[in-house]
Specification:
- The protein is of the alpha/beta class and about 270 residues long.
- It has 9 helices and 14 strands.
- A hairpin with a 2-residue loop joins β13 and β14.
- The mean pLDDT is about 95.
- It has a single domain, classed as Aldolase class I (TIM Barrel).
Length: about 270
């Protein structure tokens, strides 16, 4: 098995300080959380941006401020920007951070019920985001909430909009989307081509069991406040680093080494 790539999704777009007192919002806070995650073994920082008021933002300027702060903190992890943004944002807004030419970005490949909302990704939006990533030289990671999203992703490959190595992130447990079960994770892994990189992001209490499965199955793991704010039942995590460290310990017990940012770049095909 390749070395384990740990992604830290450090803040997301939906949480507020009321939900999570330790949520990083300002560029300084984001940088501190990224540094903690890096120090515990995260090779990828999945980044959303917030504006001066703490609201979700897809502004290139807001992303740039956070990215510069992360680099100034000494964290050398891959920075993966979000093109999902927040529910209700336009396709034009969501392209914003791609203009910074980051090395890695998420690409949602289908619409999905998202709690009481609907996260809309029409075929035109999906293809438009893929074309923008090509324009700015950004490698995508497909964000998969349902099995049909895998087929939509492979359609982009057939169109020549995304080239190998392919990278998938299975997000399981969002209310209204695919259930966070072991059977569903195994099934999704079986739907993607061989020699393909995959990650699992379990939502809430499912983060740990699905992450543990991925360690032993040869996949990669995403943890962090975007997906889960608890370290154990009723106990709020104090930092993203705490969640990263736990997965790193499981990997160590399994005899699986943790990928450095440089090793993760090679595995994911960044800069190729």
């Amino acid at each position: 098995m390749d070395k384990l790539i740990i992604t830290a999704a450090i803040q997301g777009a939906e949480l507020t300080k009321k939900d999570m007192p330790h949520l990083p919002v300002s560029p300084f806070e984001v940088a501190e959380e990224a540094r903690r995650a890096c120090n515990e073994g995260a090779a990828v920082i999945h980044l959303h941006a917030r504006d001066k008021n703490g609201n979700p933002s897809q502004s290139a300027q807001d992303y740039e401020e956070s990215i510069e702060a992360i680099r100034a903190s000494g964290c050398r992890a891959i920075i993966q920007v979000s093109t999902g943004g927040a529910v209700g944002m336009t396709a034009e807004e969501r392209i914003g951070p791609l203009t910074l030419r980051p090395e890695y970005a998420t690409l949602n490949t289908g619409s999905v019920n998202f709690g009481r909302d609907v996260f809309v990704n029409s075929p035109d939006v999906i293809e438009g985001l893929a074309k923008a990533m090509n324009q700015y030289g950004v490698k995508p990671e497909f964000e998969i909430f349902e099995e049909g999203h895998v087929h939509n992703a492979m359609a982009l490959v057939k169109l020549g909009l995304v080239a190998a190595p392919l990278n998938f992130d299975f997000v399981l447990g969002v209310p209204g989307a695919m259930a966070p079960t072991a059977r569903n994770l195994v099934h999704l892994v079986e739907t993607i081509p061989a020699q393909t990189n995959w990650t699992v992001a379990g939502i809430g209490r499912h983060e740990l069991p699905l992450g543990g499965m991925a360690v032993f199955m040869g996949g990669n793991v995403r943890v962090g406040f975007e997906d889960n704010i608890y370290f154990s039942k009723g106990v709020v995590a104090t930092s993203n680093g705490e969640l990263v460290a736990r997965i790193a310990r499981i990997a160590k017990e399994a005899g699986r080494d943790i990928a450095s940012p440089e090793e993760a770049r090679r595995i994911l095909g960044l800069g190729a």
